[in-house]
Amino acid sequence: MPKNQLRWAHSSAGLAVVLGMRSDPVPPALIAHLQNVTTADPAEDLVGLEGKLRAIVATLTSRTNHVERSIADSHRKIADAGRSWSPVAWFRRLGAKTSRSSEIARQADLRQSLDAAVSARDTLRQFVIGLDAPSGLLRESAAGWQRSPDVPPSVVAFGPEDSFVTADSRRLERGWASARVAGDIYGEGWRRDGDDDGPYSQPMDRAGPWRIGFIPRTGEVYASRHCGYLPQEVWLLGKDFEAQHAHTILDGLLPRMREPNSLILAAGVVHAERSLRSTRERTALRRPGVTSPRDRGGRTGMTMRQLAVAIGITMAASVGCSARSGSVQPSTPTSEIVLSVQIPPPESRSPQATVEGEATWLTGRPGCISLVTEAGQRFQLSGSVVLDNEHRARMGEQPRAQRVRVTGYVPERGTSPCHLGPTFVAEKVTAMNS
User: Fold this and answer.
1) Distance (Å, whole) CA 411 – CA 423
2) Which of these, 233, 237, 216, 215, lies nearest to 224 by C-alpha position?
3) Please, which pLDDT band fits residue 303 given cuts at 50, 70 and 90?
4) Can you tell me the distance from the alpha carbon of 237 to that of 220, in angstroms, rounded to the nearest whole number?
5) Which residues are 429's β-sheet partners?
6) Are strands 184-185 and 210-215 parallel, antiparallel or unpaired?
7) How far apart are alpha carbons 395 and 277 in whole angstroms?
8) In whole angstroms, what is the distance from residue 310 CA to residue 221 CA?
9) 74 vs 278: which has the higher pLDDT
10) φ, ψ of residue 158 in degrees (nearest 5)
11) Contact 359/371 with Cβ under 8 angstroms?
């Protein structure tokens, strides 16, 4: 058997997934869903179960929303009946109150079922993420589930396509009377949590309702949602792209379209490419030998010998200090609370930021501490103050998860080794009252 091949292990102790020398027991909440239905392919079984649980969540969410609208309608009918004691008004109030009581009980049952389904879905996702499969379906699924489905800060969201083309007529496909966006399409199955589950979707469909395209006349990359069960929506992912550059980026992303939250992945890559290009353009516009006012400071530029010595010192310092996080210069302090954290290019670090969100100190993997901000960004928290909180949670001295206010920054090449999103180095953590 190949070293990294997945297989099920059935024993008196329960069900486990075996990968190489590891054996990970299936969480008790999932065993009932997998008992007697496992196949020779654990990856297909687990991803198929996630699809079923996702569909259950979508169905229960729709039913719950319908009941809650009915409750609001009952409140309105009671108010419309007023305080009159006429027989007609009295019977209207009685009927509306009886209906409301029934709907509130129904809402409670649906909420309980919905919470259980969401818990099972999230438990399965965390289990797959913890398996840390090196490749294949589980690897791409784990990566996708760790992306937040919220609209990224870099995206400009529009309503239907007609509002998108009205804002700039160059976006309109010539020869069409109705709003149809011009340009080249790069796939029509891009995925985003919450949008993937239509009324006829199947567990292993692995396709979403979003298309991504490029408009040569404007140099814009956009995404558009097309399905019968959700309203149309357009996202502007990036602009000022040359055609060849856009084609290279989108062709490279296309094989990953079937991953969960692939739309969010594409938005991030397009934004990063645009940011890197802007940095390169600014660097190219700076003429050799000309220093900026910040660099001049009243002094002449370096001689070639001085420059060579400075480069040598810098390289020696970077080799000696690259393994020590303490060598990073302190970030610019700020006390302002921001909704989302600016994600820098890989070779840069972000400004210091203060955000609020939910910190999970115990995620099942030591050292892997999760932070989900109010805007839905997901980070792996790091730093000594974070490890102190993890230790206190493990000792039972504080909750496993807390609402917190965190001050820190995203470091250079801040990719999370725990696959929880970018790394966020916390310099200060304050617990908040719920």
Assistant:
1) 7
2) 233
3) very low
4) 8
5) 406
6) antiparallel
7) 48
8) 42
9) 74
10) -120, 175
11) yes
